[in-house]
Task: structure prediction
Amino acid sequence: MLAGCGGGNPGTVPTIGPDEVKADSAAVGALLELERTAVIAYEVAQGRLRGAARTVAQRLRGHEQAHGRAIEQALGSLGARVPPLRPRSRYMAGFPTVTTTQDALRFVLDIENTQVSAYADALVTIFTPALRVTVASILAVEAEHMSVILGELHQPQASQSLVTGNAPT
Result:
């Protein structure tokens, strides 16, 4: 029975070498770019949203900004360089045309779905325990975002918010 409880000395911290730190820095650097993309995506979406949906988008954009700051701090704690912000046009290069409320909501749902998938993939590759906690926490919030957006689309929220990042959007 105790074997299933994690075993080992609870005070043991795994040794993280320079190669692991470099890999972790690369993984979260890519996540930072997704967060920066999400912030701009929400700005674009807000231009097509009104009322409660616009308020929701503003709130979720704020969350994405906070996620970006958390990742920047995590990179700093690893002793890694924070990648510079790219020009806005580079983040928007692959954005679809957003002309309606439905377009805007589906667009940010797709962004969130991409983030969930990326965070889930990164979570299993990260070596640094504290960084794993940060990534897992943000992953949970991104899944919550999907649920909220699905609600704005008047779609079932639980079926896609308990996510793998592969749900059709």
Summary: Residues 19-82+95-161 form a domain with the Ferritin fold (CATH 1.20.1260.10). The radius of gyration is 18 Å. Helices lie at 18-46, 51-77, 88-92, 101-123, 129-152, 158-161. The first helix runs from residue 18 to 46.
